[in-house]
Specification:
This protein is an all-alpha fold. 65% of the residues lie in helices and 0% in strands. It folds into two domains: 64 residues, 434 Repressor (Amino-terminal Domain), CATH 1.10.260; 81 residues. α6 packs antiparallel against α7.
Amino acid sequence: MKKTDVSSVMKEMRGKEHQQKLAMELNVARETISKYENGRSKVPADIGRALTQKYDNPKFAITLRSEYTGTGPKWLDGPNVDLHRSSVREKTIEEMREALDKLEQISFAKPLCKLDGFEKQNIEIALEELVELQTALDHLVAVVCMEADISYTGLWDKHYRYLTSVGYLDGGGTVQ
């Protein structure tokens, strides 16, 4: 199984497009594109944003976030993963139920700094379930966007506009 990292996904996205053409679009040297694709140089934030906008590729966006922050879901590419939309949907529903069940079993009424070991362990288990759910949700959105030709970046832009409109973001929440 091929490792999923920013450089390999970038090369995959470019497809048959020449490095020189992409380099001209990004205003960098062709050698720079080669270094990004071979993993000899990290893709800077501005180039990552430009590539995300150009290709609107959820796999790239998820991989970029994970690789560069060390947080968030990683693109699932192991031998037991099934990324068919129906399988991802079923797994997401399963993870939602498990996360909701664990979340309903804990209370946040007590100050978290006053938790005993057992209470803290139960909260950590609930958080682990929420992280599993986040991975499932990200993949469901990504797979459906890719198969249905729905803009992944467009969905996020719309979401950011909504968050801004209800006062959860202070403007500027859209992808540049």
